[in-house]
Amino acid sequence: MSEYVLEVDGLQKAFRVGAGEVVACNNVSFTIPPGGSMGLVGESGSGKSTIARMLVGLETPDAGTIHVRGRQLGLQERGRAARLRRAKEIQMVFQDPYGSLDRRLTVAQCLDQAMRLHGVSGSARVAALLDQVGLLAKHGDSKPHQLSGGQRQRVAIARCLAIEPSVMVLDEAVSALDVSVQAQILALLNEIRASSGIALLFVSHDLAVVSEVTDDVLVMYRGSILEQGPTGRVLNAPESSYTKLLISSMPGPGWDPADVLERRAAFEAKVGV
Description:
Elements (H helix, E strand, L loop, with lengths): L5 E12 L2 E13 L4 E5 L6 H8 L7 E6 L2 E2 L7 H10 E4 L3 H4 L6 H10 L6 H10 L16 H13 L5 E5 L7 H18 L2 E6 L2 H7 L2 E6 L2 E7 H6 L4 H8 L8 H15 L2
Parallel strand pairs: 3-8, 3-9, 6-7, 7-8
Antiparallel strand pairs: 1-2, 1-4, 4-5, 9-10
GO molecular function: ATP binding; ATP hydrolysis activity
Family: Belongs to the ABC transporter superfamily.
Keywords: ATP-binding, Nucleotide-binding, Transport
């Protein structure tokens, strides 16, 4: 039995663009232990979301392997049964919960439907899920438009937890929420991984958010890992000039836009952009 919940090795993905191709994922490897949380950071186009989509089966890797609790997942899942098996292993929380929830269903119906797909059901389980994500029993009778953004994201998390996955992938899952609600959702995620052993892959461009909810971080640039290590070390004592550029780009006390532009020009000159 593997000591890791999620093992990704040598993941590759390129997309055809006109007569050429763009490499979205170049030999990416990482592991997450039980209850661990990995941050995947970088600017738009760095390959973060492509990696997330490959993990849940929405994109097919060109090469590489994905193991969940020691079992290798197929690079391309065919048929309903195969897709359900993968969904049982890895669930995804999207940036926009309103767009990912069925507006016709109440919260209770949404959770029950997710469980029925995997042969589980019951009002007691629905009530337990609502309580687990900090919602009241009355929220079970609500439809998505009757909830706040934070409440809808709690429902999306509850729907993932309904089938007890091994891994949760969160793609910019709090970026649309205000700061106070973000803090509540991040605290919830930390509670969930501590109590359940679920592994989290947290995809974000927001380094402040990543620092609150991850143990380790991968810094991505144009499909490749430029820096990897414990979150505290990477964010407080970065080794890569690109990581330093990302950190300097965050507005805050003493923030200097001119310094950011200078760092970017130096980095792009170095990599030949």
